[in-house]
Design goal:
The protein is an alpha+beta fold and about 200 residues long. It has one domain: Muramoyl-pentapeptide Carboxypeptidase, domain 2 (2-Layer Sandwich), CATH 3.30.1380. It is about 25% helix and about 15% strand. The protein has 4 helices and 7 strands, in the order βαββαβαβαββ. It has a 5-stranded mixed β-sheet with strand order 2-4-5-7-6, with helices on one face. A hairpin with a 2-residue loop joins strand 6 and strand 7. It is globular. The structure holds zinc ion. The site of zinc ion has 6 residues, from strand 5 and strand 7.
Length: about 200
Amino acid sequence: MLACGQDGRRADEPMVEVKTVAPRVVVELRYATARNLAKRAIYPKNARAYLRRGVAERLVRAQTWLDAYAPKGTRLKIWDAWRPAWAHQQLWKVMPNPELLRDPRLGGSLHTWGVCVDATLVDAAGTELKMPSDFDVFGKKSKTRYTGADPAVEQNLRRLQAAMTVAGFQVVHDEWWHFCAKDWQAYAAIDLSLTGGEVPE
Ligand SMILES: [Zn+2]
């Protein structure tokens, strides 16, 4: 069944591993570590980053924009990509706050559709650039519009947002790191394995 506002045109678009389509994009799945809001690993250690093919291809476009307009060596880094529904359930159990997470009973997160990524930037050495906050730090610091006083943070965030919007993503008001395909309505939730299989875990 399609969700409200959804047209399902690309509901069958295959899922691909990000590194096979966008090999220059750095992947560090935070939910495979304890560095997230749950403060423990939710994904298996060997979890891989998957997205719908057309969404993964947009990461290549974002990286190409960075190659042209950001300091040499700047790369996109992904903290989360497709998220299985069971993993979103676990996050909801830890933080059942509808201001921070989408209630699984109301359809859950668009991450479970393979159309959203959590992203930041790294420099040529792979070090994360200064941004308004770390991943999964909610509150004033997570807002898309930076209101702090550090011009470097403002510039880094602007570059990330420019690269992602040029590539076909939209920014999401409450989480500066969260970007969804602007045509997300064309897709739907999808299930597979985080570690390479085709069957749900
Ligand atoms: Zn997100």
